Amino acid sequence: MQSVADEKHDTASINRSPVIDARRLVKRFGGITAVAGISLVLQQGEMIGLIGPNGAGKTTLFNLIAGSLKPSSGEIWISGREVSQERPELRIARGVGRTFQIPRPFAEMTVLENVLTGAQEQDGERLFANFFNPGRVAGQERAAIDKARSLLSFVTLSGLENEPARVLSGGQRKLLELARILMADPAAILLDEPAAGVNPALLETIMERVLELHAQGKSILLIEHNMDMISRLCSRVMAMASGRHLAEGTPDEVATNPAVIEAYLGGAA
Amino acid sequence: MILDLLAYGAFFLTMALTYAIMCLGLNVQWGQTGLFNVGIAGFVAIGAYASALLTTPETAGRIGGFGLPIAAGWFGGALVAGVVAYLIGALTIRLRADYLAIATFGVAVAVQLCVLNLEALTGGAFGIGFIPRPFAELAGNPLAFGLSNAGLLIAVVALLYMALEHLVRSPWGRVLRAIREDEAAAQALGKNPTRFRLQAFTIGGAIMGLAGAAQAHFIGFIAPDNYMPILTFQVWAMLIVGGSGNNRGAILGAVLVWGIWASSAAAVSTFFAPEQQARAASLQIVMIGVGLCLILLLRPRGILGEVRNVSRHIRKIMKSDDAELASRFLSKD
Ligand SMILES: Nc1ncnc2c1ncn2[C@@H]1O[C@H](COP(=O)(O)OP(=O)(O)OP(=O)(O)O)[C@@H](O)[C@H]1O
Ligand SMILES: [Mg+2]
Predict the structure, then answer these.
(1) A190 and A140 both lie in a single domain
(2) How far apart are CA A262 and CA A48, in angstroms?
(3) Could you please report the per-residue DSSP string of A134-181?
(4) Alpha-carbon Rg for chain A in angstroms
(5) For the whole model, what pTM was predicted?
C-alpha cells in the first residue's frame, strides 16, 4: 500500500491541477436551494475540513462532487477533467471515493466480501471471463483477498472478516466503508461525518487512520461537527450555512469567526 | 404395473424439470437481481416456437421448418428469447422498477397475439405439430423413451445448475448481490447497476427460452393455449415455494408445485363427471393458491431460503486457513 501511495505522490508533482475543483456549484430541490454557489479546491495531498450547522448543505455538496447528484449549475473538475454530467459509478475510476453519512454496508454480505466489492477492473465481474478465463479470475481474486485483508487489519476489523456486515456497530461500519473505498486506491477520499455516533475508543482509531492516510498522500475532504477532530486533523477549514460559503481559514480562525458562531447559535439553516 | 408407474414417474419428472428450468431463469432475474418479470409465459413461448420453427421439417403452407437438429433448436430458442429479453431490458431497466413489470406483461400479451395471428409462421390457434422428440427412435418402448428423456432433462438441469452456481459464487454474482442490497453504495464503488441488471435479465430470459424449447420437444406439439398467464403464475408459485434466491430451491419448488398440479388434475378427472371437469379444473389453481398461502405463512422465505453465498475463492482460502489452524493445533500436543 505504501508503494501505491508513493506512486500517487510522484504523479502529483507532475500533474499540478487540483484533485477536486468545484466551481460555483448550485443544487436546487424544488423550492429549496441546498447548495447555493459553492466553490472549493482540494489540492493533491491536502486535507480540508467542511463544517456547518445541520442542513447547511454539506452532504449535498458531497453528493455533487461524488456524482450521485447532478448540479443544477456549476462545474466539477477532477484532476483537470470536467465530470459534472458523468454517471456516479465513473467517479471511482477518476480517483474519487466517498463514504456515507449514514454508513451503507452490504448488510447480508460478509465484512471481507464488502471490502472485495471495492476492487476495480476485476475480470471476474465480467460474465464470460468466469467461464472462459477462470484461472485469471482466481488469480485476481486471490490478490484482491490479500489486499482486502491487509485493509481490514488497517481498520482493525480483521477478526470480523467472516461476519455479515449487519452485526457491525455504527463506528465499525464507518471503518468498513473506509476499507471498502480504499480497496479502489482513490486519490481523493470524501468522508461524511466519520466520527458521528462513534464511541470514544473507536473514534481515536478512526482519527489515527485518517491521519495515516493523509500521511500516505491521500487528498481528503472531511465533513465533521466535532471541532476537536477538525483542529487535530485539518490545516484548512471551510464553513458553510444555508448552502452558502461562510468562512475559510485555519480551524482557529474559522471557529472564532463571528459569522460562523452566529450561524451555529442562530440556527441560520 | 410397476413398469407403468416407472414410465409415468419418468414422464412426470421430465415435465417437472422443464418447469425447473423456467424457475432457474426466474431465480436469476428475481431471486438474485430483484427484477420483476410477469411475462414468463412470453419468453417460454418465444423459445418454444423458435425451436419448433428451426427443427420441424418443411411443411406446405407454413413458413419455417428448417429441419435442423434438436440441439440447434434449443440453442436457437434460448438465443432468440435472450435477445428479446435484452431488448426489453435495454429499454426499461434504467426506468422505475414497475415499468419493467409492465413491459414484460406487454411482451407476454404481444407474443400470445402474434402466435395466434401469424398463422403462416405459427399455425395460429392450431399450433405446430410433429416437433421432433429426443430419442424418438425409442418411442415404441414407453419406459426406455421416458427414462431417456428424463435423463436428458436431468443432465440439462444439472449443467444449468452448476453454471448458475458458478456465477452466484463469482465476483459477478457478488456485484449483483451488492447492487440488490444497496444500489447507491455499489455505484460509489464503480459498479454500473444497469449493466449488471441487464445481463441478469438477459440470462434469465434465455434460460426461459431454453425451457420452452425443451418442453415443446418433449410434448411434440405446441399451441398458443400453452402459454397463457397461468404459466407465469405457476412459475412464480414454484420459485416462492422452493425459496427465492436459491437455485436448489427453484428446482425443488418446481417439482413440488408441478406435483400438486398434476395430482390435483388427476383428482379432478376422478371425482368429477366429464361435463363438469372443465369448470372443476379451476380448482387446480385454488390448490396452488392455498399451497402458496401455507408456505408464505409457515416459511416466508420458501422451503429452502436464500443462503449467504460466499465467493468460492474465499471459501478455498478459508479452507486452507482451517487446515493451517488444525495442523498448528495438532502439532501442539
Ligand atoms: N434529496 C433531497 N430532496 C430534497 N431536499 C433535500 C434532499 N437532500 C437534502 N435536502 C435538503 O437540503 C438541505 C441540505 O441538506 P444536507 O443533507 O446537505 O445538509 P447537511 O449540511 O449535510 O446537514 P447535516 O449536518 O444534518 O448532515 C436540507 O434542507 C435538506 O432538507
Ligand atoms: Mg450531512
Answers:
(1) no
(2) 22
(3) HHHHHHHHHHHHHHHHHHHHHTT-GGGTTSBGGGS-HHHHHHHHHHHH
(4) 19
(5) 0.88
A211 lines ligand 1 (CB under 6 A): no
- Give the rounded distance of the alpha carbon of B35 from its chain centre: 15
C-beta separation of A196 from A229 below 8 A? no
Sheet of A81-82: strand order equals A32-42, A20-29, A73-78, A81-82
Range of the domain at A131: 110-167
- Nearest atom in ligand 1 to A62's CA: 18
Both A101 and A21 in one domain: the answer is yes
Q: Where would I find the H helices in chain A?
A: 2-14, 58-66, 91-94, 111-116, 129-132, 134-154, 170-182, 200-215, 227-233, 251-256, 258-266
Asked whether the beta carbons of residue A117 and residue B174 sit closer than 8 angstroms, the reply is: yes
Query: Are the Cβ atoms of B317 and A116 closer than 8 angstroms?
Result: no
Same-domain pairing of A76 and A150: no
Q: Which ligand is nearest to the CA of A33?
A: 1
Q: What is the pLDDT of residues B114-162, one digit of tens each?
A: 999 988 888 888 889 889 989 988 888 888 999 999 999 999 999 999 9
Give residue A34 CA to ligand 1 midpoint distance, Å: 6
Q: Is A118 found in the same domain as A41?
A: no
In this prediction, residue B308 carries a pLDDT of 65
Determine the residue type at B66: F
B264 CB contacts (<8 Å, ≥6 apart)?
B283, B284, B287
| B174 in contact with chain A, both atoms CB, cutoff 8 A | yes
Whose alpha carbon is nearest atom 3 of ligand 1?
A29
In angstroms, the separation between the Cα of residue A247 and the nearest Cα of chain B is 29
Nearest ligand to the C-alpha atom of residue A38: 1
**What are A's interface residues with B at a Cβ cutoff of 8 A?**
66, 68, 87-93, 97-98, 100, 104-110, 112-113, 116-120, 122, 124-127, 130-131, 137-138, 141-142, 145, 162, 164, 180-181, 184
Determine the Cα–Cα distance for residues A162 and A8; give it in Å rounded to an integer: 32
CATH of domain B2-330: 1.10.3470
Q: Nearest CB to A124: which of B170, B190, B199?
A: B170
Ligand number with the minimum distance to the CA of A100: 2
Mean pLDDT of A191-195: 92
* Average pLDDT estimate for A10-17: 56
In a domain, A179, yes or no: no
Residues of B in contact with A125 (CB under 8 A): 171-172, 175, 191
Half-sphere exposure of B277 (CA within 13 A, CB side): 11
Q: Does A180 sit within 8 Å of B171, measured CB to CB? A: no
Q: Which atom of ligand 1 lies nearest, measured to the CA of A53?
A: 25
What's the rounded Cα separation, in Å, for the pair B17 and B62? 31
Spatial contact of A246 and A239, defined as CB atoms under 8 Å apart? yes
CATH number at residue A29: 3.40.50.300
In the block, which residue shows the cell 398458443?
A: B224
Q: How many CB atoms lie within 10 A of CB B148?
A: 17
A205 and A93 part of one domain: yes
- Rounded-to-integer distance, Cα A140 and Cα B170, Å: 12
A96 and A224 inside one domain: yes
pLDDT in tens, B170-210: 999 999 999 999 999 999 999 999 999 999 999 999 999 99
Q: Provide the total of helices (H) and of strands (E) in chain A, helices listed first.
A: 11, 10
For residue A57, report the distance from its CA to the centre of ligand 1, in Å.
5
